[in-house]
Structure formats: C-alpha cells, structure tokens
Amino acid sequence: MKVMKKKNILLNSFAALLLMIVPTSCDSFLDKMPDNRAEVDSETKIEELLVSAYPSNDYMLFTELMSDNCDDYGENNPNTSRFYDQCYAWNDVTESNNESPENVWGALYSAIAAANQALQGIQDVGGATTTALKECKGEALMARAYAHFMLVNIFCLNYNSSTSSKDLGVPYMTAPETTLNPKYERGTVAEDYEKIAADIEEGLPLVGDSYYTVPKYHFNKKAAYAFASRFYLYYEKWQKAADYATRCLGSNPSTVLRDWQNVSKMTQTFTAIGQHYVSADLNCNLLLMTAYSVMGLVEGPYYTASKYAHGSYLASTEDCSAANIWGTNGYWSNPKVYKGTNLDKTIFWKLPYMFEYTDAVAGIGYNRTVYPALTTDECLLNRAEAYIMLKKYDEAATDLTSWEKNIIKAGVNLTPESITTFYKAINYSEPLQSTIKKRLNPAFAIDAEGSEQECMLQCVLGFRRIETLGCGLRWFDVKRYGIEIVRRVMSAAGVPDHQTDVLKKDDPRRAIQLPQKVLDAGMTPNPRS
Question: pLDDT (tens digit, 9 = 90+) per residue, 232-271?
Fold first, then answer.
C-alpha cells in the first residue's frame, strides 16, 4: 500500500517552540522570523498543503499500554523497553521515539499548523469562493478540530461539566504564528471543547468529497459526521451525538458495517487480513491515517512489547473470549491466540505492519502502519451509548443487536430486558478475579448499579472494548467513565499473581504529562498530586 508523504513546509516559530520537530535548536531557529515559507496562493497549493493537516505519529501504542487491555507478564520477560515500562506504569514518559507522547504532541500541532496555513491561504486568495475552496476550508476546520480534540483528550483530564471550566486544557491555535518566541497559555478543557465545537459546526457544512483523489485519507462528509458523533458523545451532548451518528450511518447501518463474514472467507494470513482491514474500498473505513508506528508488531503475531500483552486471561475473563450475552466466541473472524516462552497474546488481526526503507542496502528505515481513525462500527456504538444516556433503550438495543449480529455468527436479538438480566447477574471485576463488568464512576449522572441504564452501559462499553481492541481507544472510555484499573503481575500459569498498582477514578495520571521540552519552555505542567 502506498503511504502518504508529508508535504515539505517550513514550520513557524510556534512549531519550533511547542512541537520540537525542527532539526536545529529552538534558539537558533528563533533568531529570525522565517521568510521562506511556501506561498499558498492557489487552490492547488491549498489542497496540497492539507495533506499535511493529519498527524504522522499515532497515540495508539501508549494509550493501549495505559489501558486495562494489558497485563504484566513478569520481570523475566525481556520483550520490553523503558518506554513500554513507563507507559504501562502510568509514569511521566521521558523516553522519546516515534510513538512517544512528545512526538504525538508535535505531530498534532504540526497538523494544526498546516490547517491554519491553509485557512490563511484561503483568506489570502479572496475567501472560499469556489466549491473546491469551500471544501478545503471545511477540511481544514475539521482537521484542526480533530487534532485539538486528540490533544485535549490525551494530555488533559476528560471533559466533564463539573470541573472542566477549571481543568487545564491545551493551547488552541487558530492562526499561523507571526511573532518571535511567543508565549502560550493552556486555558481550560471547557474552553477547548467550545472551540472544537465551533470549528466542527463551521466546517461540517462545507466538507465535501469532490476534489479528493482518495477521499478516505481526508475529512470526507461521512468521516466528519462520525467525528462529530464521537466529539459530542465525549462532550456529554447526547442528542447531538446520536443525530450526527445517524447522518453518518444512514437508514440501514448494517449495510455499511465491517463485513466480518467476508473476512472469514479470505486468505487467513496476518498480512492479508491487515491490508484488508485498512482498505480504502471498505464502507466501514471513514478516515484512514498513516503513522510511524510499531502497532503492526505489538498487535500482531510477534514478541514486540509482549511483556505487557493482552493475554489469554484478560481475553477469557474480560473481553473478546469471555462468556458474553451471545455465549462464548462464535465470531466470524475469531481472535488469534499465541502462546510460547514469554508469549501469551490474544488479538484480532487488524493493523498491518509495514516497513519504509530509507536505505534498502543497509536495511534501515521506519516502521509504519495505516489505521482507521474513524469507522462506521464505532459510530454505531457511539449512537447506542448516546441513546442509553437519553434513556431510549429500545433504540439502543437495536443498535447493539446490529453490531453483535455483524461480528458474531449466531448473534441474538437483544432487548433492554435481556441486557439488564444478563449484566445484573454478573459480579463486578476484582483486581485478581476479572469479569466483563467493571464499576462505572463517570462525573455525569447515571442510574444506580444494577439499573437498566447501568446494565446497558456495561453492554455498550463491553462491545466498544472488543470493537476497538488493539487500537488505543479503550483508554478514553476508561477516562470518561472513571473506570479504575489495576496493575497486576501474572504467574507462570498465566493468571493474576499479585497487584502492584491501581489507577483510581480521580488519579491525576489520567492526564498524560506534557513533553519535557514544552515544560522547559514555560508551559504549566499537569498536576501530579
């Protein structure tokens, strides 16, 4: 698969200060204002610039490691690194690589810089006066909103209506930087969400598909609706989340979900399934992104990072292989189990592993992957969750049934009553005795434990965990619902031996610390007590 290349654009002084991706030192770069930026003075140049409005580094590795989707397989397991150790332990990450928080921060702000430069270019050529320029403006606004959304959800506490007006946010950039050595304030999470909403509402009506060569690598219309659905779900605006999901899914969602039955008929190799999973031809894939990433190794049939694996115990007691409302297993495409010395891994084949050679003779280059940043399957579960919060339980059960019957060979018709009966009978997960049901502690109000609403939330969160397994999104559900996570060491038999740590619902480590270079430049750090 051909991987998108970033356009060569000179980042402004803001990028030098905040992004740390300029090869020279910040001091030398800030000695003078850049005066050799490419002139963005035509539709073609604006379109080309927008290729750079998407991050080239992904969050998936460290958010997956920080979530409850992995366990510690012991100090004698050599398949780790200081970076993996720090992420798993929720320590402030000091190691830097292509998937470190530092480089994800830089990639997201680089994407924002490109979006802002495109918006400035549109203004400089007289505004969005043509169809192409209107669509470019819509794409730039959606890309800017998405990048800020990821920043605030990674590096800040999750949004909640109770405390976000005081919780530290991230700098929201709405124009190219034009001053030397600028100083930036973090603002609040609530302010960031207000600005993201403004960008979405302005940009979404302008988004189109006409000028894209490969629409799935851009914010096309359906991708924009899916992102709006996720955003408003996190924003606790349930009706808007449901409405935007409906615009994305259409009148018959089952026709646009991932065709797992077809996957089961394919050549059953990791390479074939991985390449198919991220195909731009699939209706379920709405927005695809490329990244410098080892996720194809970590979530593939390899030893990489296997000290902190999604092992058979987790799978069989908490998620994909556990007894669920439909019974046990029965997927069209079953999770793959790998066991051996220092290896206990249960995964779905999803993200492909690619290698980009910079020197084929020397055999060096970059690990890469492609991943679906937005899908119809996630969007359907967004709507189901929104319906549950609106207490539209029959509508939620219909969506949950659609998801379940699409992935399970012999799926059953789900009703609010059957869901409540099933989950009410399950014990809550304990540190050394897991179940598929975890206590929910969101800042927003939900009904009591064992209620119809709480049981249906257990169901949708469990389905979301399976749907997003290996793609890093579980971490954000953990944050939104105040789900507590234990760290435990597994025994030689592959079962929990002892607990080492716990991430409480109000633990400040839920907000990943800002990169050290950003803190050194004067940005306020996230509290750690």
Answer: 999 999 999 999 999 999 999 999 999 999 999 999 999 9
456 alpha-carbon distance from chain centroid: 23
Neighbouring C-alpha atoms within 13 Å toward the C-beta of 415: 3
Q: How does DSSP classify residue 296?
A: H
Q: Where are the beta strands (DSSP E) in 75-226?
A: none
- Mean of pLDDT values over 411-435: 97
* Tokens standing for residue 114: 């490109």
Q: To the nearest 10°, the Cα dihedral for 135, 257, 278, 201?
A: 30
Amino acid at 524: T
Structure tokens at 293: 């990433």
% of the chain beyond a pLDDT of 70? 92
Q: Say which DSSP state 302 is in.
A: S
- Taking the mean position of all CA atoms in its chain, how far away is CA 393? 27
Q: Which residues contact 322 (CB under 8 A, 6 or more apart)?
A: 315, 316, 328, 435, 436
Per-residue model confidence as pLDDT tens digits over 495-516: 999 999 999 999 999 999 999 9
Question: Are 186 and 524 in contact, with CB atoms under 8 Å apart?
Answer: yes
For the chain, helix, strand, coil in percent to 5 are 45, 10, 45
Q: Alpha helix (H) ranges present in 308-451?
A: 312-317, 376-389, 393-407, 416-424
Cα–Cα distance measured from residue 118 to residue 394, given in angstroms and rounded to the nearest whole number: 44
Specify burial of residue 343 (Cβ count, 10 A radius: 0-12, 13-18, 19+).
middle
Q: Write the CB contacts of 188 (distance below 8 Å, at least 6 apart in sequence).
A: 164, 165, 166, 167, 168, 169
Amino acid at residue number 381: L
Q: What is the 3-state secondary structure (H, E, C) of 5-72?
A: CCCCCCCCHHHHHHCCCCCCCHHHHCCCCCCCCCCCCCHHHHHHHHHHCCCCECCHHHHHHHCCCCEE
Token pair belonging to 383:
């709507």
Overall average pLDDT of the 75-84 stretch: 96
Question: Which residues, other chains included, contact 148 with Cβ-Cβ below 8 Å and sequence gap of 6+?
Answer: 108, 112, 170, 172, 173, 192, 195, 196, 199
Q: Please check whether residue 192 is in contact with residue 514, taking contact to mean a CB–CB distance below 8 angstroms.
A: no
Q: What angle do CA 240, 395, 335 make, to 5 degrees?
A: 95
Least Cα distance to 377 among 509, 271, 469, 492 occurs for 469
Q: Which two tokens stand for residue 497?
A: 């031996």
Among 285, 271, 290, 446, CA closest to 366:
290
Which residue's structure tokens are 């169809």? 131
- Nearest of 61, 113, 111, 16 to residue 292 by alpha carbon: 61
> Are residues 407 and 421 in contact, defined by beta-carbon separation less than 8 angstroms?
no
